[in-house]
Amino acid sequence: MRHMHPTYTITAIVLLLVAGVVGQQAVSMRFYTVLGPGAGFFPAILAGVLALLSLGLLYQAIFRADTLPEIGFVADPLAYARIGTVLVALMAIAVFIEDLGFRPMMALFFFVMFAVLGRHRLVLSAALALVLTFAYHFFFKGLLNVPLPSGAFGL
Amino acid sequence: MSENLSLLLSGFGNALRLENLVFAFAGCFLGTLVGMLPGLGPSAAIAILLPITAAMDPTAAIVMLAAIYYGCQYGDTITAVLFNTPGTGGAAMTAVEGHMMAKQGRAGTALAIAAIASFVGGTVTVGLLAMIALPLTSLALSFGPPEFFALIVLSLALVVTLGSSSTLRGLITTVFGLILAMVGTDPVMGLPRLTFGQMHLLDGVAFIPVIIGLFGVGEILKNLEDPTNSFREAVVSKLRITRDDARRSAPAIARGTVLGFLIGIIPGMGTIPAAFMSYVTEKRLSRTPERFGTGMIEGVAGPESANNAAANGALLPLLTLGIPGSGVVAILMGALMMNGIVPGPLMFEEQSDLVWTLIASMYVGNVILLVLNLPFIPMWVSILRIPYSFLFPVILGFTIVGAYSLANSQFDLGLIAVFGLIGYIMRKLDFPLVPIIMTLILGPMMEGGLRRSLEMSQGDFTIFLQRPITAGFLTLAVVFLLLPLMSGVRRRLKRASTPVSPGETD
Questions:
Q1: How many separate domains does chain A show?
Q2: Is A93 among the domain residues?
Q3: pTM above the 0.90 mark?
Q4: In Å, how far is A101's CA from the nearest CA of chain B?
Q5: CB contact under 8 A, A18 and B179
Q6: CB-closest option in B178, B186, B424 to A83
Q7: Band of the pLDDT at B382, cuts 50, 70, 90?
Q8: C-alpha angle B8-B12-B13 in degrees, rounded to nearest 5
Q9: Domain residue limits at A115
Q10: How many structural domains are present in chain B?
Q11: Which of A21, A48, A67 is the last residue of a domain?
Q12: How far apart, in Å, are the Cα atoms of B298 and each of B236, B255, B273, B423?
């Protein structure tokens, strides 16, 4: 028998916290009105069910860890660097795309993806980034008429 | 009947317009392209591609979505046969025999028979769909809020039980998805709910960024653990089918089509059990079952037709009841809703033009796939030789433009990053993703059904037991949810009653 499963224990605790927050929000809304169930009615039920299920997962993670899948969560650190790069790049796009414009942000995004993830030469990465950016702009804005942000510099 | 036929003909009239044929071709091409990328199955492919349809008029969008749907299914088969890397479980059985055929230099034959089997499975079942949908719709129109609530509970129970490796984790995902669906403005009282003061959340959690994040970005992040994958050795022989191949495949295709459709109708079953059952049936009926696993063409023909027939069968509950039968169909439902089409019993009455165009588009998509994809197979193979380091940025670019273009919202772009991370973690922890998608769509309907039922009964919960259909659905749901628990208890009791041999005491 395996001992406690830390990954699922943490997951269960996080889910319990989620249930707690949802439950707290639900009780702050009206549970029942003269018309029938209020805004907090269904969320309160869901919070309760999620709490019960999370406790079930916690029990499984602590006392019956052998029934849970073994997870190689911490794998190659480089893999996590790659995953982190993509997530940071996506967040950067989300934050800056309207201020800086579609083309500069996408060119930067593609450059980072090719240079960091693909480990291509900088010149090749820059060339690919520019070609792709203009291809996307042409396809989405030119052909499909999708409104894309121009940013402060009109790019 | 003649009225249906004229409506179908008018649907064909719409689907066969030149501009729509171009969109159908583009949909088949893009669907196959993204669907065949290893690691990106049909769900991810549709999620990534559907924002393209947002800028189109509803008819063109429907035609393209149907084509993407079929293209994705076929793209999956290409990698299964050539590289033994199916993007979904549905193509896994095809990979068993198809890849062995490829190793024997018969990849072209395997792909050709897979295309024909998919075409037959797809085309025949679209016909069945058109015939059965209308009578079922009349039945669905007699349902009240309690019946709809119970039907949704039953559908979710089936998805949790049949589509998850663990009922507990499936239930957790379902409830988490329902909570996400509650975010926004309360439909009755107009109060903000679970928005935490965020104006962007007043309209709820946007469906498209969530699915792009969970399925598209999450899948890419998982693949980034080992981005060196690419395929360079595939060789495709001539696409030749001998008379013997045809003779052996025809009955397998017929059986797979019927079996697949019947399995596909049941919510939560999807394409995996359909393909598996078809494979097992072919093996059982074969005079040489021992040769299965060595490249038997029946093992490609049967599962492929079953796979496509099940994909169409899963559309039946969507079109008649407004309940998606699988994750891919749930995404398709989201895409239809994005284009102003609300699937369900009223769709045949209120938007009959669009429904019949959708049905006709399925035929058109099937034909285009058959006619165009076979000559393109060598080109698909050369695309698959492109290293991932070039493909990922291109796909991520699509997800960014797609998520942004729907509402011109920076917040939605943030959502794809957040849900990409959640999707990645869920994959690592073996939590099923499909219930989240289904509950995001069904959650508001489920809450509406529950609240209206309780308003009808003035707060009396026994309303769900007093109506026979409702009580039947809910009882079935409980039985399905308890089945895995009961079989687990039975296994443990059996183990406990088995005497332990001395060697096993350690």
A1: 2
A2: yes
A3: no
A4: 12
A5: yes
A6: B424
A7: confident
A8: 115
A9: 77-143
A10: 1
A11: A67
A12: 20, 11, 17, 36
